[in-house]
């Protein structure tokens, strides 16, 4: 598979209030494959968002390289092409909506690319359809729920026809049904449109849906693998201040009590099957 | 009784085309020292309800008593209500505004007209109660702190008012798991040590199951269910039909029981599930 994002020995330093250099990222290397659903977890301050902002040139490396679709983000000539390839969605839906009508908001990106009106119409319609928000196209965004607003923000990115979408805690401010809506939308875009997803979250039930999970801590990637591989490391994750699904923790504790139970359990159904096999 | 709500109704924009009934004839009681979980889908009426409990909204009809004091009476001073009931909003750290953490937490007590000495005492205590070191943080700007710490400073500002009832609207929203656990531990601590009545609004059924004595479930402006977590989480179909859920561990136990396994299905925590499953496996 092609790699859509390649990060090589990425270092990012900034100056704090005392004017001391602080390394937010310390030689991070990562490849994101085209069509992949990658989840990034790690506690606040671990470097997740800093890394994400390098993936579409919002931040530029202090050291190392970031390539998006083969283009070096440090080269200014590439910035527009990179932003079209890799779109970003942030935590607070209210900070990302610029227009007073849903479809005008979605059209904002393509309009700024100088695309023909007819093509813009097409893109807006398709983008709203893709996130299931077509019936709301004439509404004011302030009348929508948090989950719906976040889907509009995603539609605004899709209208740019990106190959990759980076979502920085898009569900953090939503209620459970809003979270479900957004996750279903993301998964569908990944499966049906083949859009590469980089999803940052604190919710482990979202992380278990990924193809691959990476765990960040103090500016480094400390764990990487499929959800099953990563979540077996219950002790390490707890030390890092992260959660595991309740059934995964239960499996871990039962094993510690001497039961020969698989540690690759992520869902209720898997737990039921494995418990019944014990007998 | 700490809080009695009787036939509370609230209508937004009455007699206009935008009229909406946000609360419909809501009645419940909360005992002194109880830890209550308030759950419900967005738009179920939770926020409207808690804003009545400290007088931010006026009831269209109905009565509310806080520790035998009727706060819905006409000539009640808002100051009296606010001293009894402290409300921590969502993202309370956005309301921090002073230059130093000391000044920010002291803002409420000083406006109560307390002496400098008394205010000082309360600020010191409140900052320590939320798990920060008074000496370390008092002169620092609230904006130098991490998100989770800022939120604790905001909660300290409410705690410094020494409310009899503390209401928190999603105090862990947007925090990472560690920040979430720290805040919840502090709240539990306040409840245990000061026998404060606490009302916690949360979307996390796992947190609710672990912490509260009683749950009130709101739906479309009415109380859909209330009871202990064990009782409430038995009503899976009803909860799911109104956009809520039960803890993952409770789903597991229900599934095992439905398959005929001899175990209890009203389990709420991983520890309970563990001992229940071990007993079952050992009996085999």
Helix content of chain A: 25-40%
- State the CATH class of the largest domain in chain A: Alpha Beta
The greatest interface here is: A-B, 36 and 34 residues
Would you tell me the overall average pLDDT of chain B? 93
How far do the termini of chain A sit from each other? 42 Å
Total beta strands of chain A: 10
Strand residues, percent of chain A: 15-25%
- Distance between the amino and carboxyl termini of chain B: 47 Å
Main β-sheet of chain B: number of strands, strand sense, barrel status? 6 strands, mixed
What is the ordering of alpha helices and beta strands of chain B?
EEEHEEHEHHHHEHEHEEHHHH
What order do the helices and strands of chain A follow? EEEHEEHEHHHEHEHEEHHHH
Q: What structural class results from the helix and strand content of chain A?
A: alpha/beta
The CATH homologous superfamily of the largest domain in chain A is termed P-loop containing nucleotide triphosphate hydrolases
User: What do we call the CATH topology of the largest domain in chain A?
Assistant: Rossmann fold
- Give the spatial strand order of the biggest sheet of chain B: 6-7-8-3-9-10
For the largest beta-sheet of chain A, the strand count, sense and barrel status come to: 6 strands, mixed
Strand order, sheet with most strands of chain A: 6-7-8-3-9-10
Structure description:
The complex is a heterodimer of chains A (279) and B (284). By secondary structure, chain A is of the alpha/beta class. Chain A has helices at 48-54, 79-85, 102-112, 117-130, 146-158, 176-192, 204-207, 227-231, 234-239, 246-256, 268-277, and strands spanning 3-15, 21-33, 37-41, 63-68, 71-72, 86-89, 164-168, 196-200, 212-217, 220-225. Chain A is built from eleven helices and ten strands. In chain A, helix 3 (102-112) packs across helix 4, helix 3 packs parallel to helix 5 (146-158) and helix 4 (117-130) packs across helix 5 (146-158). The mean pLDDT of chain A is 93. By secondary structure, chain B is of the alpha/beta class. Chain B has a domain at 247-284. Chain B has a six-stranded mixed sheet with strand order 6-7-8-3-9-10, with helices on both faces. A four-stranded antiparallel sheet of chain B has the order 2-1-4-5, with helices on one face. Chain B is globular and about 65 Å long. Chain B starts with a strand and ends with a helix. The mean pLDDT of chain B is 93. The A-B interface holds A 17, 43-45, 91, 145-146, 169, 172-173, 175-178, 202, 205, 241-243, 245-247, 249-250, 253-254, 257, 259, 268-269, 271-272, 275-276, 278-279 and B 41-43, 144, 146-148, 173-179, 203, 206, 243-245, 247-249, 251-252, 255-256, 259, 270, 273-274, 277-278, 281, 284.
